[in-house]
Amino acid sequence: MADNAPRPIVAGNWKMNGLSTSAFAEVRLLCGMLEGVSTGCDVMLCPPATLLHQMSELIEEAPIQLGGQDCHEKPSGAHTGDISAIMLADAGAVAVIVGHSERRTDHGESDETVRLKATAAHAAGLKAIICVGETLAQRDDNETLNVIAAQLAGSVPDASTAEDTVIAYEPVWAIGTGRTPTVDQVAEVHTAIRQNLADRLGSDIADAMAILYGGSVKPSNAEELMSVRNVDGALVGGASLKAADFIGIIKTYT
Ligand code: PGA
To answer: Is 122 one of the annotated active-site residues of the chain?
Structure first.
């Protein structure tokens, strides 16, 4: 492992889930579970934007960071329904997920859009968690590494640093399906991502940049997935909604 290896991150992506009463009850539970625990990773929750502000007050004393799930590429303006990176920062976020495959599919986001969003996140002082991942058809066609390389080339801003950028490898076919790649498949892609980043940004930045795995991570498979070389944490969907499940993944790093 490189000397400047990143501190792992376990981030929960709540997607379009969470109403105040039940969500805050889970967050309070999680805060309690983390009390007195010295975690070997950063813990982050990315709730819907509607919950961010109140949640930032709730977790003030806890070792939990907050992130948004998407941002607009502009800081403000006539974009009904959109939220800018600086607004997320204003509500208490320190990071934002960009280019999640659900955004790429549901909203037709291109690599260029994702890169502009990541640049906007950086300008607002947020860490951009840039998602990449192949579909099942692309994997079956042996296109995985080419697809990932093209997504990285198009989505990662040239000026990215290890402080302001995290990569999340999320095979589309593993998201919400209960299916996960083998450890060899995860290792192959994560090693290729690290190499790609080194070629592009230099090895100092690449070695220090966290590369998360996401897609059906749960307490029962977290240890195996998180121990794969070049995996620096997890982006967790379904299993981050319940404190009891999420803590099981976080504890992989204690
Ligand atoms: P999942 O989602 O853990 O529910 O598979 C992961 C993600 O989409 O970030």
So the answer is: no
